[in-house]
Give the backbone structure.
Amino acid sequence: MNAFHLAFAHLRWTWGRSLVLILVGALILAVPLVSQTLLRGSEEALTRRAEATPLVMGSRGSQLDLVMNAVYFSKDRAEPITMAANEAVWNSDLGLPIPLHTAFETNGARIVGTSLDYFDFRELDMAEGRMFAVLGEAVMGAAVAERLGLEPGDAVVTSPQNLFDLDGVYPLELGIVGVLAPTGTPDDEAVFADVKTTWVIAGIGHGHEDVITAEEAEAGNVTANAALAEYNRITEDNIDSFHFHGAPETFPISALIVDPYDERSGTILRGRYLDASNPLQVVLPEEIVAGLVDRIFRIATLLDAVTLIIGVAAGGAIALALFLSWRLRAPEMATAWRLGAGRGTILALAGAEVVVLLAASLCLAALIVLGVQSSGETIVSWLLAL
Amino acid sequence: MIELRDVSFAYPRGGFRLSVPELSIAEGARVAVVGPSGTGKTTLLNLVAGLAVPERGTVRVGGVQVSELSETQRRSFRAHRIGFVFQNFALMDYLPARENILYPYRIVRGLRLDAEARARAASLAEACGIAGKLDRRPNALSQGEQQRVAICRALVTQPGLILADEATGNLDPETKTVILDLLFERAADAGATILAVTHDHELLPRFDRVIDFADLRITT
């Protein structure tokens, strides 16, 4: 078609304008579809993981923060509880408690201190290496390992909580011993370690040089000073020097996942923590997430309206740009008319340009939507971890 | 052969009225149209091309009574029988010279862009001295070169009549002569008649005939 031949030539000649129009057109078309895709993906991911988490125990306060932190490892932080809660559930013989300590980060990824029960509970498999066995070892989620280019044998350093807090948490080097297989869940974005390792990061447990030597003790020359070196890396040589101060039941955790042995046990457990004066609460993630999803979709309706308004405005801008372009081409159309072109041909010249722009915008929008759809799970788990 | 008989034309918004009692132009002639601005020189070209329709009278070009044709027929008549050369060249700035020459084939349904048309375009470009510049866009050509491209475009469909409206108006004196000679030579090769509006009296001796619109005198 000659009209398309000329349209392509004109679009190439005005490539900057053409590119902007194609990009804007593609965004107008893609944004509603992408937001719908991500919303549906988020809904599915949220619901699926919540349904797979029977009960969460944590400090009384925002139930949503508690669930988002314990189930999706988000930055929402509930007040910490102590390991006494873990002992209480264990001693009740009503369910399996799985501690979670999510206070720390490394390279932008959440460090999750937990027990080995967590991996059985979530049915997580190793893709490389082995599970952590001793203090200072870590297992990487699939996505974070890929993003940081890490594998077993490498190490990560925990991020300090406060750069200027000299008395606070110091970085600890964690040796990577394994990488988990991808699951498309927030587990892919986390770094797992034993809960005791997170207590070392918190400074509750530490290792350091001997205060006295045997010779000094025999000579009665016992001294200790501020130059005593603490280890920031746990090795075979120094692991025996690591120890914890205080009673283990007072050590902090963020929350507990509780896997009741049966439905009745779950109901009894929930009943025990209904009292508002109890500093602990037990929540059903499924219920909390259902409420959240409902709210998200109500907001999404508003978002759709905003997108529509922006789309209409941007569409108007595109129409204006095309109209001005048509006006600029008016002398060409007058020449074409003089040379014998019909009105239909002249309309086709203008129409072909619009068709090519629209087709290019559609193709680009389709690529964007397909790209989002193909990596939807990754994007959703990343969004949920924010 | 161009014949105008008892033609009267006025624009709907008023202004001057053009009246041509009788005018005949022989086939293959080179005719200049001169006269003050606003006396109807371009209107005469428009009447001959079928771009304007007289209120009364007849306009006949090469045996075709243009004034009686429908709009579609007049469009087809222009596309097949007439070549235009404009003062401002009217080239498409987004197309290279080669595509500008072939432009009528892109916009007129009845014209087929085949190997013969392409060969003719190449031959005309060669004859006009722009064969080496066919891939350049108008902004990379001099004004004289742009008018050469426009002449090639006017002749590529092998029309019987070339209508040139101030075709040398934007050119320097030396280039004017060269371009006019070129137009005459190529039109002569094709056996085409030339009807050219001009304000340049120095060029008039080169024409076979001059129509002076100052008093609608027709001199030979």
Notes: The first helix of chain A runs from residue 2 to 13. The longest strand of chain A covers residues 95-106. The mean pLDDT of chain A is 85. Chain A touches chain B at residues 2, 5-6, 9-10, 12-14, 331-332, 335-336, 338-342, 345, 349 (CB under 8 Å).
